[in-house]
Amino acid sequence: MKVLNSLLKVVNVILMGVLVLIFALPFVWMVSTSLKTLPETMIFPPEWIPAAPQWQNFMQAWNSGPFLHYFMNSVMISAGILLLQMITIIPAAYAFARFEFKGSGILFGLVMVTLMIPSQLIFLPVYLELSSWNLLNTHLGLILPFASSAFGIFLLRQSFKQVPNELIEAARLDKAKEWKIMIKLMIPMARPALITFGLFSFISHWNDYFWPLVMTTNETARTLPLGIAKIRETEGLTTWNVLMAGNLILVVPILIIFFFAQRSIIKAFVYNGVK
Amino acid sequence: MMSSTSSIWHKLRPYGMVTPALAVFGVFFIYPIFYMIYLSVFDWNFVSPTKDYVGLQNFSALLSDDEFRQVILNTTIYTVSTVLLTLSISLLLALWLNRSGAFYGFVQGAIFSPHIISLVSISLLWSWLMDPEYGLLNWVISLFGFGPLEWLSHPDTSLMSLILVAVWKGIGFNTLVFIAGLQSIPQSIYEAAALDRSKPWRTFMRLTLPMLSPTLFFLAIMSMIGSFQVFETIAIMTQGGPVNSTNTLVYYIYQYGFRFFKIGYASAAGVILLVIVGILTLIYFRLLSKKVHYR
Fold first, then answer.
1. Which one, A198, B11, B68, B89, has the greatest CB density within 10 A?
2. CA of A205: which chain B residue's CA is closest?
3. Considering the domain A66-274 in this protein, what is its CATH number?
4. Nearest to A87 among B20, B126, B225 (CB)
5. Structure pTM?
């Protein structure tokens, strides 16, 4: 019985190793390829460690387009969206959590409907809308459609609701103004939810390819994911080494964030979704 | 005593607080939906100053178009396979990995990592892995005596290859949500079942699965809606080809709107997608209120 148990334990560990390989090996392969010469990418069986790391692949990828520009656009757009979202969702979530007002049920239902309907469904009319306001190819045009977030309101409302009533009553007795209660009392109490939402929002807009592709026709407001996808056109379809180097430029910032904030990120994406 | 102006202010205050957010939803969500429905009954090429009213002609043209029927079929196959595979594999993994400790935490983190990586990166990476001549995947399956496969470049395997990528990307997130669901089941119920000498399979079917059903339905509807809007992998890996074998709804709408400038026609396809998503959402809430076990 003891032997069987320890055998099972070994099998368990081996199977988990295989599982990790299935998810990690593609990324290892990406890193390995990004440091290879072009002939090295065609050798089979593959060499996992390149003979001489080709760091210039990264320079070649970076110089294949205005990458500093793409990078700055990505930062500005993701940060701009996050800032506007915070400004719009905090008061809305506070009102939905703490005030009783006529029509609040219907209005919150409206928020939930936008949560269920995917934004990719309506890109065509939004495009025409932005076009008629001359907002195509502008930062503002990429930011405004996401200036609020139904998911954020939903998440924040939950955590505002959990703040004990006594705390608010005590503050009101002290004649604290309502906006002061919101900023000085509620926001610190809801910090975990705010960080969670911040990570969620920043990562998903940093990664987004669809909206910048659809809403821009020239380079002025294009972002990093579009620049990376374009390397294939400028460097050729089979220069996998340069492509993977470019790919790493996009992946590494997110992986670094993930490494340091793994727990909060997983919480941000998973646990709050089901509550 | 409160003055009357301040009591009006108190009544209006919550409306003022929700206005900015609702304004954004109104302008960029609600209004576009109606605008799309409006556009779907016109023939318009975006540059022409006039829109020609054509009634339901766009819809009848869509439904009699073989290419569009293929797109609906592709989208259905893609969605059903992706959702079924992702959910069943994730549930198995969740039952297996639902343990605490640094080692299990590491494994959970590893399988979750594709979820936060941009779909652009994932698509490029898998295009390389699936390269018919120099891709790693053909080498790996050759070790087991299979292949070589053409993956993305043959209509028989292209859709399957996209499903594989979607399942690979989605498993980690779904597994962790399942684990969260498993952990919220009270331990005392299991102890009672153990006292009754309930067999593991029976405990799973009679206890775990019903208790997990809200999570299961949440994930099913989320992955279904997510699969219906697949775009990036198609745009980067296949462009809908070869011979239309991987074209799906959102990509089709994109093609007709932005390449062929048939705005009315593309909007009609958008309305059809809207109806499908709407029905799915309704089914979800119906099931949730009737069949699903609540804690």
1. B68
2. B118
3. 1.10.3720.10
4. B20
5. 0.90
